[in-house]
Amino acid sequence: MSATSAPALLRPLHPLHAILLAFPLPLFLGALLSDLAYWNTFQVQWANFASWLIAGGLLVGAFAVLWALIDLVRSGRGRRGRAAIYFVVLLAMWVLGLVNALVHAKDAFAIMPAALYLSAAVTLLALVAAWMGYSGYHSRGAV
Fold first, then answer.
1. Beta partners for residue 9, in sequence order
2. Distance from C-alpha of 55 to C-alpha of 34, rounded to nearest angstrom
3. pLDDT for 2
4. Read out DSSP for 28-66?
5. How far is C-alpha 87 from the geometric centre of its chain's CA atoms?
6. Sign (positive/negative) of CA torsion 34, 36, 39, 42?
7. Could you tell me which of 120, 118, 115 has the C-alpha nearest to residue 38?
8. Alpha helices by DSSP H, the chain
9. pLDDT bracket for residue 143 (50, 70, 90)
10. Could you tell me the sign of the dihedral formed by the alpha carbons of 67, 68, 72, 78, in that order?
11. Considering only CA atoms, which of 61, 63, 132, 69 is closest in space to residue 101?
12. Which residues contact residue 41 at a Cβ distance below 8 angstroms, ignoring those fewer than 6 apart?
């Protein structure tokens, strides 16, 4: 008698959720790069670019968070923990992004260094959320 182990089936993201999840990472990364450019040049337009990129990341990210919340509510007992972690990471990304947007609403000279640190944290959370979403981490064991 031999034992075989079948890998857990991964339920891929819904295509619309995958599209929504594709936007926050590059937008928040662009904001981080704009903050780095402002840090080095002190040209106010870089701070304005970062503000707009953060606003775009928050707009699309809100829909991704909402989708993850609905997925969490609809998930079975076996996947609730992983879906909850995915939702919490997305929610933390969005909340820190909102705080970052409020910091960027100040005068351009007053936003440094807090804006740079917040942009780095939000970008890291967006990267983790994208990795979790696209790797199927939040849906292992689901059929």
1. none
2. 14
3. 58
4. HHHHHHHHHHHHHH--HHHHHHHHHHHHHHHHHHHHHHH
5. 10
6. negative
7. 115
8. 15-22, 24-41, 44-74, 80-104, 114-135
9. very low
10. positive
11. 61
12. none
Output the pTM of the full model.
0.85
Q: Which residue has the tokens 């969490």?
A: 72
Radius of gyration of the chain (CA): 18
Contact partners, residue 11, CB within 8 Å, separation at least 6: 136, 139, 142, 143
Burial class (CB in 10 A: 0-12, 13-18, 19+), 115: buried
List the structure tokens of 13. Answer: 């993201």
Pairwise CA distance, residues 110 & 105, whole Å: 10
The C-alpha atoms of residue 69 and residue 126 are separated, in whole angstroms, by: 16
Residue bearing tokens 């995958």: 18
pLDDT, tens only, 37-85: 999 999 999 999 999 999 999 999 999 999 999 989 987 776 788 889 9
